[in-house]
């Protein structure tokens, strides 16, 4: 019986589909939709622009404080004096030839304990460091003070999605600033390639890169072989994830990811920790997670800000729209705080009215700031709400590196046994 | 060359507009209302920066926006009408759905209009979008138990209206099995 009715619904929908398709010029309609949506996006961008300045200042202030707390163990950037001289021609034909002029470090063992460095690797082009060939014995010297670095070119897909990019590369950097070439990526995985985290014991790293749009993809990179093993979650409905997004990483190295499967707009959240490996995150148990009526990451003020993640990467804020009598449409009536390290969700019923709130930042370890937009797109008020369950504030790594659009260079640094900078888990959208 | 969300929006409209309106018509009961619903959903979907990796994901988002707005809109209309009745001290009456009368309905479309907005959203999600009960629950943001009840009641009403004989058998689509990288 259900099959028969289902078939009738399908037939009726198909008939209406044909009728609707014949009633409009779809090309014109598409132009209309894109133009209208673009205007809306501009209004939002304009409305949030003023707050971007405040946010940057606030983040900057936090960074200074965090750097003090982080102390001398922070990853030191490679220095020219320890960079080997290179003379080979880079593979990237569109770039000018490299011209490093620094000299090789003195063969005295230095901080990295290496007396005789290996041969020079082939130069990769402008923006890339001159580096030594990696040899197995170098791993014996790798420890505190060393770092893993990615070098790549970020492209702007909206300017030229077919822009040629140089092969991205991943290096080990010694405390003396000597770099060792670990892997050179294929072009398909090279645009904006970044190291997201380093599993020192396994000699693997998680990396992601940008596609021809604002999309990214992610994989585990074997640092010994250079092989990439794409991240792939099996989602409900036997669907494999086709888009994995890093959301947060705590000082303990625990990560939160969001993944989408083909044809399914509802995301699924996954967590990686040293103790448990990959598991489905407790966030998935929130009612209606990822749907318009259920919990979702709090709407934030702009792309790439990821303000719903606290600066230490340990707390993530989500909200749920109101439903029920006496509540306004667009009102957020419940906030969930996800403790990344403990895989624990705590709910808060806000005591302040939150109608169409746009989240701007964490004001403190347990207080969120949000703005309310007026009809003209500007904030009519700025408010704050205290939340339950926010874990104690952890250290905030300061060494965030984010490649500049259109310029090849160092795109991420992760120190040995040091927390990954939470900021590396998001990037400025170029949309 | 324009890429990104603009390409996705353009491809979605050019290739899936008819299907979206067909789907929306099953919810609104009227082609003009369905066209409006699709336009609104497209605008709200692409008018904000959000994670839409491809056309399929964008279509899913637009469908969900249509369904959510349909259910929310119906709830608002019912609430507003109840408020008006209280103010006017009029006796309660049976409140029809938000959809107006549209003469050009097929039998199955008329039958769908006999369902409450949530029943209709669940039946259409299950039988047109081919979502499982769990997926329908996530899609509409309601409990799985509610989905089962709405689908059962809705199909029962439709069977009566369409004079389709037989018991209400709730079909279920297949699902789930974890693989590498994480449990589902």
Quickly describe the structure.
The complex is a heterodimer of chains A (431) and B (184). Chain A is α+β, with helices and mostly antiparallel strands.
Defining key terms:
heterodimer; A: 431 residues; alpha+beta; five-stranded mixed beta sheet; five-stranded antiparallel beta sheet; 2 helices; B: 184 residues; mainly alpha; Arc Repressor Mutant, subunit A; 2 domains; 7 helices; 65% helix; disordered C terminus
Spans of chain B of 5+ residues with little confidence (pLDDT < 50)? 75-101, 174-184
Helix and strand sequence of chain A: HHEEEEEEEEEEEEEEEEEEEEE
Which structural category do the helix and sheet elements of chain A fall into?
alpha+beta
Number of strands of chain B: 0
What is the domain total for the residues of chain A? 2
Percentage of residues in strands of chain A: 25-35%
Looking at how many chains there are and whether they match, the oligomeric state comes to: heterodimer
Q: Uncertain runs of chain A with pLDDT below 50, 5 residues or more?
A: 43-83, 85-107
Average pLDDT of chain B, rounded to a whole number, is 73
Sheet with the most strands, sense and barrel status of chain B: none
N-to-C CA distance of chain A: 48 Å
What is the N-to-C succession of helices and strands of chain B?
HHHHHHH
């Amino acid at each position: 019986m259900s099959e028969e009715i289902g078939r009738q619904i399908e037939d009726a929908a198909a008939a209406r589909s044909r009728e609707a398709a014949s009633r409009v010029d779809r090309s014109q309609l598409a132009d209309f939709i894109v133009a209208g949506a673009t205007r809306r996006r501009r209004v939002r961008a304009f409305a949030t622009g003023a707050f971007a300045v405040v946010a940057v200042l606030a983040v900057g202030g936090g960074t200074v404080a965090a750097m003090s707390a982080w102390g001398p163990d922070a990853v030191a950037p490679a220095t020219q004096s320890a960079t080997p001289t290179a003379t080979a021609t880079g593979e990237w034909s569109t770039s000018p030839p490299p011209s490093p002029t620094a000299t090789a470090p003195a063969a005295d063992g230095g901080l990295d304990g290496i007396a005789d460095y290996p041969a020079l690797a082939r130069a990769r082009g402008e923006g890339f460091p001159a580096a030594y060939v990696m040899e197995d014995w170098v791993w014996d010297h790798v420890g505190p003070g060393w770092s893993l670095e990615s070098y790549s070119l970020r492209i702007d897909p909206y300017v030229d999605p077919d822009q040629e990019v140089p092969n991205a590369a991943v290096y080990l950097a010694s405390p003396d600033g000597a770099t060792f070439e670990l892997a050179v990526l294929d072009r398909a995985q090279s645009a904006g390639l970044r190291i997201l985290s380093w599993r020192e014991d396994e000699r693997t790293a998680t990396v992601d890169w940008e596609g021809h749009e604002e999309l990214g993809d992610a994989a585990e990179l074997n640092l010994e072989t250079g092989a990439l093993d794409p991240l792939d979650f099996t989602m409900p409905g036997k669907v494999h994830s086709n888009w994995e997004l890093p959301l947060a990483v705590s000082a303990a190295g625990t990560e939160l990811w969001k993944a989408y499967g083909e044809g399914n707009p509802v995301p699924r959240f996954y967590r990686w920790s040293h103790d448990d490996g990959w598991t489905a995150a407790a966030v998935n148990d929130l009612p209606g997670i990822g749907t318009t009526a259920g919990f979702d990451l709090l709407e934030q003020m702009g792309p790439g800000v990821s303000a719903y993640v606290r600066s230490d990467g340990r707390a993530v804020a989500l909200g749920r729209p109101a439903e029920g009598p006496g509540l306004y449409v667009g009102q957020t009536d419940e906030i969930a705080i996800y403790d990344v390290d403990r895989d624990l969700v705590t709910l808060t019923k806000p005591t302040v009215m939150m109608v169409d709130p746009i989240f701007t930042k964490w004001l403190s370890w347990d207080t969120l700031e949000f703005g309310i937009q007026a009809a003209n797109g500007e904030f009519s008020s700025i408010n704050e709400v205290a939340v339950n369950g926010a874990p104690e504030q952890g250290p905030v790594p300061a060494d965030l590196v984010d490649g500049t659009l259109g310029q090849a260079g160092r795109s991420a640094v992760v120190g040995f046994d040091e927390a990954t900078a939470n900021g590396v888990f998001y990037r400025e959208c170029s949309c | 060359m324009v890429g990104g969300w603009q390409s996705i929006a353009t491809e979605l409209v050019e290739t899936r507009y008819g299907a979206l309106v067909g789907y929306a018509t099953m919810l609104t009961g009227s082609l003009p209302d369905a066209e409006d619903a699709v336009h609104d959903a497209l605008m709200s979907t692409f008018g904000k920066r959000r994670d839409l990796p491809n056309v399929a994901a964008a279509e899913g988002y637009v469908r969900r926006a249509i369904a959510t707005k349909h259910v929310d809109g119906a709830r608002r209309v019912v609430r507003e009408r109840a408020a008006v009745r209280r103010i006017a001290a009029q006796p309660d009456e049976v409140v029809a759905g938000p959809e107006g009368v549209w003469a050009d309905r097929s039998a199955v479309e008329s039958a769908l209009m006999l369902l409450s907005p949530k029943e209709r959203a669940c039946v259409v999600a299950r039988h047109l979008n081919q979502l499982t009960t769990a997926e329908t629950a996530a899609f509409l943001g309601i409990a799985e138990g509610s989905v089962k009840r709405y689908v059962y009641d809705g199909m029962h009403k439709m069977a009566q209206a369409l004079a389709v004989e037989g018991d209400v058998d709730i079909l279920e689509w297949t699902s789930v099995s974890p693989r590498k990288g994480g449990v589902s």
